[in-house]
Every structure is written in C-alpha cells, then in structure tokens.
C-alpha cells in the first residue's frame, strides 16, 4: 500500500504538470499496456477484449494479503476483495489454451463406467493431524 501511495502522489504531480491525462481510476505501477509504454489500469494488460495480468501484480496482491492477515477480523471486506482479485489474477495467469484444446480432442469413451475405490489405513499415532 505504501508503494501505491508514492506512485499515486507521483501520478498526481504529473497530472498537475500536464504530463498525464486526469483519470478517476488508479493506475498500477505493475503493468504496461501492450499498445503503449504507459502503465495500464489495475495491474492489467489490455489486449483487445481479453484482460491479462502480470506476475508482479499477483506478487503484490499476495504481499498485501499477507499484510492484511496481521489484523484478523478487522478488514472483512478488504480480505474478501483481495482474495477475489487474487483468484481472478491466478485464473487469468495460469489458464492455458492448449489444455482446453487437448481435452476437446479426446476420443469418445467406450464400455461401461466403473467406479473404483481403495481403502487406505493411516496410523493415527504416527499421523494425528490427518482426518479422513
């Protein structure tokens, strides 16, 4: 949050000097727009209709989430919003098109559907924290 405040102050100073257009949305220092060298909004890269996030933005979100954990049961909405944004960024960063294509090219299943189960015994004395 401190880094964002510094960046925001710098952005406001540049807006007053006429270097940047005034905007109501905060600009994240963690991403660059694909079409220009100006920072993109909220750590996103805008590529056509699809939004792409950066790994630096995810790292900053995780750092912020960890800092929020220092104040349990204080910032309920911030915790929820941070977790939602982290999930959204993770899905965007780690979603691969080739995995979707590979699943669509699988052959049709043959034969009856069989459900198999296996019973596993875990010694409670050796592993007391495992609950099944």
Automatic annotation (TrEMBL):
<dbReference type="Pfam" id="PF16544">
    <property type="entry name" value="STAR_dimer"/>
</dbReference>
<keyword id="KW-0694">RNA-binding</keyword>
<feature type="domain" description="STAR protein homodimerisation region">
    <location>
        <begin position="50"/>
        <end position="101"/>
    </location>
</feature>
<dbReference type="InterPro" id="IPR032377">
    <property type="entry name" value="STAR_dimer"/>
</dbReference>
<feature type="region of interest" description="Disordered">
    <location>
        <begin position="7"/>
        <end position="49"/>
    </location>
</feature>
<dbReference type="InterPro" id="IPR045071">
    <property type="entry name" value="BBP-like"/>
</dbReference>
<dbReference type="GO" id="GO:0005634">
    <property type="term" value="C:nucleus"/>
</dbReference>
<protein>
    <submittedName>
        <fullName>STAR_dimer domain-containing protein</fullName>
    </submittedName>
</protein>
<dbReference type="GO" id="GO:0003729">
    <property type="term" value="F:mRNA binding"/>
</dbReference>
<dbReference type="GO" id="GO:0005737">
    <property type="term" value="C:cytoplasm"/>
</dbReference>
<dbReference type="GO" id="GO:0048024">
    <property type="term" value="P:regulation of mRNA splicing, via spliceosome"/>
</dbReference>
<feature type="compositionally biased region" description="Polar residues">
    <location>
        <begin position="20"/>
        <end position="49"/>
    </location>
</feature>
């Amino acid at each position: 949050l401190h880094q964002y405040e510094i960046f925001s102050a710098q952005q406001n100073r540049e807006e007053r000097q006429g270097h940047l257009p005034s905007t109501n949305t905060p600009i994240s220092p963690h991403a660059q727009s694909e079409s220009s060298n100006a920072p993109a909004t909220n750590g996103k890269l805008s590529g056509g209709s699809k939004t792409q996030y950066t790994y630096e933005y995810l790292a900053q979100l995780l750092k912020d989430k960890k800092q929020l954990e220092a104040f349990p049961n204080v910032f309920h909405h911030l915790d929820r919003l941070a977790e939602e944004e982290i999930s959204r960024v993770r899905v965007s960063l780690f979603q691969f098109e080739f995995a979707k294509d590979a699943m669509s090219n699988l052959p049709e299943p043959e034969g009856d559907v069989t459900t198999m189960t296996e019973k596993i015994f875990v010694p409670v004395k050796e592993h007391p924290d495992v609950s099944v």
